[in-house]
């Protein structure tokens, strides 16, 4: 029997899952507004599947939220069923009331991972959150997927629904460290991996020399800017049958999917007949999509949505040779002596240099000049004269203000649990 | 004044020059950093970042303090 989930090497077969779903279904039927508070993917998944099935409202409360915050959520959303679990994975239920309402709201409320601020609540319909699962190809049925993201975040839920609705298995690695991911990929025969460029870089650079990399059916990159060098790296290392990079966010849903192994996306994506519509306003991408619109109506406090449903993404685009490239975040621009610098653009240039494995560019306050452009870099072999060489190499393509004045060697760059670089 | 801090500042100024592809110069306590070395104000700003990392001290935390020479800068960290 094919497992549905493999959580730290423990298998949950599809019949075990079905058994638990039918055990709890009658209880979920009786409730309207359900909140799950657990860090166990099995508990979360059972709630997701049952709430979608019975058409209830589900709040996926991140397990790092404090109890005070939990209590606030319970009150504000008039939760009538709280789901938690114990150490041996039994679900625990607290019922606040149980009378099924007519016309109850059927949706998912989740929280952004908060890489660009504090986590905020975002509402999705069950159809909008699981829409990506309908475009999984026939050749990708019954495959094994790696969960590289926070399972309850937008990207994690894309992987969840895509896998579960296409008879797939999802492999969860909850111990920290890339060795665990590497071992799980090989041991459980993972076929499909979707992850951030930072995750891919770290996975590949930490891959043990004596373990040969498996050939993947599908490799997907998203969540951060995807540059050509990381696409090439993944392509050469895992030789995926299909290599895709996507642009998506909790707010706008999945907006751009590119599979031609080239960074950026072709300008004809701006064709207005597509379901997802784009426009550029002062270099910033604005998106209007069915899934975004469904959410915009339900999120009164959502910023950057106009009356026609256009959402400002805050992501800055640049046109080069008929393709659009993401160059950074509008609100992440660093002011260097009056000139605006996008840290992501400088990071991409640094990563394209030989010897540089990872880096982050940030602003360093300084008593002399207000702010300096600074960068921490991870290199394979530290050598004298390297910093001068790095600066010289950047000056070939950049004006001087885009070259970090201060460069420091570090052992590693901190990464969030969702696989993105942590910006200071 | 302690010899060590002067040496530390000289060494750090040389480092910053080298990182910017500039030729080193001979310095002592009385060397005026911006006038007598090829380092510009951005380069000097980097020197301050490096010195803060090396000494764990930030003499500018309360605002900018003026200095011109290697000796004057060293004195700020020694304090």
Question: What is this structure, in a nutshell?
Answer:
The complex is a heterodimer of chains A (424) and B (79). Chain A has 424 residues and is α/β, with parallel strands linked by helices.
Can you walk me through this structure?
The complex is a heterodimer of chains A (about 425) and B (about 80). Chain A is about 25% helix and about 30% strand. Chain A has 3 domains: about 100 residues, Rossmann fold (3-Layer(aba) Sandwich), CATH 3.40.50; about 200 residues, ANL, N-terminal domain (Rossmann fold, 3-Layer(aba) Sandwich); about 80 residues, ANL, C-terminal domain (GMP Synthetase, Chain A, domain 3, 2-Layer Sandwich), CATH 3.30.300. Chain A is built from 11 helices and 24 strands. In chain A, helix 1 packs across helix 2 and helix 7 crosses helix 8. Chain A has an 8-stranded mixed sheet, with helices on both faces. With about 425 residues, chain A is an alpha/beta fold. By secondary structure, chain B is an all-alpha fold. Chain B has one domain: Orthogonal Bundle (Non-ribosomal Peptide Synthetase Peptidyl Carrier Protein, Chain A). Chain B is globular. Chains A and B meet through helix 11 and strand 24 of A and helix 3 of B.
Query: Uncertain segments of chain A of ≥5 residues (pLDDT<50)?
Result: none
Strand content of chain A: 25-35%
CATH architecture of the largest domain in chain A: 3-Layer(aba) Sandwich
Question: What is the CA–CA distance across the termini of chain A?
Answer: 47 Å
Oligomer: heterodimer
Number of helices of chain B: 4
Average pLDDT confidence of chain A is 88
- The global form of chain B is globular
Structural class of chain A: alpha/beta
Spans of chain B of at least 5 consecutive residues whose pLDDT stays below 50 are none
Helix fraction of chain B by DSSP (H/I, runs of at least 4): 55-70%
What gap, in angstroms, lies between the N and C termini of chain B? Answer: 10 Å
């Amino acid at each position: 029997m094919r497992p549905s989930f493999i959580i730290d090497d423990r298998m949950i077969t599809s019949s075990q899952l079905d058994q638990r779903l039918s055990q709890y279904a009658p209880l979920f039927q009786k409730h309207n507004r359900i909140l799950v508070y657990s860090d166990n993917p099995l508990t979360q998944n059972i709630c997701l599947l049952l709430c979608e099935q019975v058409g209830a409202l589900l709040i996926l409360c991140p397990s790092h939220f404090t109890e005070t915050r939990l209590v606030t959520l319970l009150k504000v959303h008039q939760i009538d069923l709280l789901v938690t679990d114990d150490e041996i994975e039994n679900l625990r239920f607290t019922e606040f009331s149980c009378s099924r309402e007519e016309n109850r709201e059927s949706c998912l409320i989740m929280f952004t991972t908060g890489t660009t601020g504090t986590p905020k609540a975002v509402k999705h319909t069950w159809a909008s959150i699981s829409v990506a699962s309908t475009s999984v190809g026939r050749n990708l049925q019954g495959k094994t997927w790696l969960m590289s993201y926070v399972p309850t975040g937008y990207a994690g839920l894309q992987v969840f629904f895509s896998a579960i609705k296409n008879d797939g298995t999802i492999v969860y690695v909850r111990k920290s460290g890339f060795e665990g991911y590497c071992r799980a990929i090989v041991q459980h025969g993972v076929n499909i991996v979707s992850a951030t460029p930072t995750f891919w870089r770290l996975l590949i650079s930490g891959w043990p020399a004596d373990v040969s990399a498996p050939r993947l059916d599908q490799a997907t990159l998203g969540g951060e800017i995807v540059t050509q060098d990381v696409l090439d790296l993944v392509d050469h290392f895992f030789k995926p049958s299909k290599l895709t990079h996507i642009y998506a966010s909790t707010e706008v849903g999945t907006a751009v999917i590119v599979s031609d192994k080239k960074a950026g996306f072709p300008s004809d994506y701006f064709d207005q007949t597509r379901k997802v519509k784009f426009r550029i306003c002062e270099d910033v991408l604005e998106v209007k999509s069915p899934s975004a619109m469904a959410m915009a109506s339900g999120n009164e406090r959502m910023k950057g949505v106009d009356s026609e449903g256009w959402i400002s993404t805050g992501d800055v685009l640049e046109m080069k040779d008929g393709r659009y490239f993401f160059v950074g975040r509008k609100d992440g621009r660093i002011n260097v002596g009056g000139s605006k610098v996008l840290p992501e653009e400088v990071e991409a240039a640094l990563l394209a240099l030989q010897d540089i494995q990872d880096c982050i560019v940030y602003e360093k306050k300084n008593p002399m000049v207000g702010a300096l452009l600074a960068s921490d870099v991870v290199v394979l072999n530290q050598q004298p004269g390297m910093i001068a060489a790095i600066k010289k190499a950047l000056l070939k393509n950049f004006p001087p203000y885009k070259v970090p004045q201060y460069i420091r060697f570090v052992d590693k760059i901190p990464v969030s649990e969702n696989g993105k670089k942590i910006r200071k | 004044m302690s010899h060590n801090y002067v040496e530390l500042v000289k060494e750090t100024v040389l480092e910053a020059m080298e990182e910017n592809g500039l030729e080193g110069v001979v310095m002592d306590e009385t060397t005026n950093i911006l006038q007598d070395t090829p380092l510009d104000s951005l380069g000097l700003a980097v020197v301050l970042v490096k010195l803060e990392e090396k000494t764990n001290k930030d003499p500018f935390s309360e605002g900018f303090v003026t200095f011109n020479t290697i000796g004057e800068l060293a004195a700020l960290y020694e304090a």
